[in-house]
Amino acid sequence: MALVHFVLALALLEFFAFGYAVARARGTYKVAAPATTGHEVFERYFRVQMNTLEQLVVFGPSLMLFAWYVNAWIAAALGLLFVIGRALYFRGYVRSAEGRHLGFLLSAIPNVTLLVGGLLGAAQAFIRSAF
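Now predict its structure.
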């Protein structure tokens, strides 16, 4: 499980890095807080951060459920793919809105896999213990 925890920490560090990038973009593109609009490039930085936050709400618990009920090594591998996907999403989306698709897929597919696998694993464990 230590590897799973390490991957989770990487995802959280990545999110902090995205937040730092948004703060820098605020200065570069002169978008004063609390505004979230104003310059197209700043808005893309901000959307990366917010979309990543939305994905992390599912990612963290799903990663832990999958690791516990299915397989920790596979969970860590899927989690690492998620982190790589988020980095590609960041790079692609900041360049152009159309550039976000590959990174989104490389983070959404592991996220869905972790969630469904964790749910099925927990359901199977429940059924075994109840009957």
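The chain has four helices and no strands.
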